[in-house]
Amino acid sequence: METLDPDWSIVAGDFTNSYYRNTAIAAARYSFYKLDISSAGVDIGGMLGFDLKGGYKGNSVVDPLLGALSVKITGTHFSEDEILNGAGVAFTIIPGETVAINVAFAFRPLSVGR
Questions:
Q1: What pLDDT, in 10s, does the model give residues 27-70?
Q2: Which residues, 6 or more positions from 39, have their beta carbon under 8 angstroms from its beta carbon?
Q3: Which residues, 6 or more positions from 69, have their beta carbon under 8 angstroms from its beta carbon?
Q4: CA distance 75 to 109
């Protein structure tokens, strides 16, 4: 995921989905709710993109478009262990005939020059 600004990101991925199909996606994500709790951040957003390999074919009524709810839980405010800032887990919930939930590790690369 590449952040364009605090609310917009570009998402790309290649994985085996919960239907055991090879899947590639390219999408844009908008963050509409953020919450900081101690050393963790919760970010809830929506994604809209394309199913490039047809991994969800037959399960998406708007195929090849793919819409999803995205929830990220990541580390924040770690001054000593900066690598933990932006590291966490991401859940992607894809509605359809059957709801699919994907889980992935999330991370944000450290800035160059640190």
A1: 999 999 999 988 888 999 999 999 999 888 877 777 788 889 99
A2: 75, 76, 77, 78, 84
A3: 44, 45, 46, 47, 92, 93, 95
A4: 13
> How many CB atoms within 10 Å of residue 106?
18
CA distances from 62 to 38, 80, 92, 107 (A): 39, 46, 17, 30
- Cα–Cα distances (Å) from 113 to 6, 91, 109, in that order, read 21, 31, 12
- Furthest-apart CA atoms within the chain: distance in Å: 48
Of the listed ranges 54-63, 84-93, 103-112, the one predicted with least confidence: 103-112
Query: How far apart (Å, rounded) are the C-alpha atoms in residues 27 and 45?
Result: 12
